[in-house]
Design a protein that fits this description.
- The chain has helices at about 1-10, 10-20, 55-60, 65-75, 95-105, 110-115, 125-140, 145-150, 160-190, and strands at about 20-25, 30-40, 45-55.
- The chain has about 200 residues and is an alpha+beta fold.
- A 3-stranded antiparallel beta sheet has the order 1-2-3.
- The longest helix is centred in the last third of the chain and has 30 residues, at about 160-190.
- It is elongated.
- Mean pLDDT is about 80; it is low at about 1-5 and about 10-15.
Length: about 200
């Protein structure tokens, strides 16, 4: 095994120049690793096996492939990043993508837009309210913290101002009854079932 390792390192620069590559060849129930040279003979491209390294499963178990890879990276002045060297730089929330589908199915966004007509609100109030809802569901923290946490939610888009969050809450207080009424009738149409009594927990 050590002989193959030294031979591979010796052939590294030559392989780069002459067009060599590592090939995985299946035979019966096993996969074998070979170093193959690609060359032209007249108008024909041919391949020649330079070295046979053995079975893939045995090379993996022995750590040979990992050692060779790390050595080649070091010779190329390329840092080798292992799991022990990884550090978490950011963490994103994706759960709101599921809630977005429910939000659209229930027609909440359209209802909010209808209720916002005729007001002096200039920003996208549906976007702000949706963010407040998912932050409450996924984080359950203060509105001020919601303002700070926006970058944690993947793909939300524009940054929402703190004043916009507070104005949206005022809007919900004023339009609560209208929103609930329209949502009731929308749900009734979506599910096409008679709804006589609604219980709120």
């Amino acid at each position: 095994m050590a002989t193959f390792f030294l031979r591979l390192l010796f052939l590294r620069q030559y392989a780069y120049i002459c067009g060599m590559f590592v090939k995985a060849t299946k035979s019966k129930n096993h996969t074998y690793i070979q170093l193959v040279e690609s060359f032209r003979e007249g108008k024909t491209t041919k391949h020649k096996v330079i070295a046979n390294f053995g079975r893939l499963d045995q090379l993996r178990d022995s750590g040979f492939l990992l050692s060779v890879g790390q050595k080649l990276l070091s010779l190329n002045n390329t840092p080798c990043i292992g799991a022990e060297n990884l550090q978490e730089t950011a963490r994103f929330c994706y759960g709101h993508l599921v809630y977005k589908k429910v939000w659209e199915q229930l027609g909440i966004g359209e209802i909010i837009k209808k209720c916002a007509k005729g007001t002096r609100i200039k920003f996208d109030i549906e976007e702000v309210i949706f963010y407040c809802v998912i932050h409450r569901l996924l984080k359950s923290k203060s509105k001020h913290q919601a303002f700070k946490d926006q970058k944690l939610f993947y793909g939300l888009g524009n940054i929402i101002g703190l004043q916009e969050i507070y104005r949206s809450l005022d809007f919900l207080c004023d339009k609560k009854q209208a929103i609930e009424t329209q949502l009731f009738y929308h749900k009734k149409g979506v599910y096409a079932k008679p709804i006589e009594v609604a219980f709120m927990m």
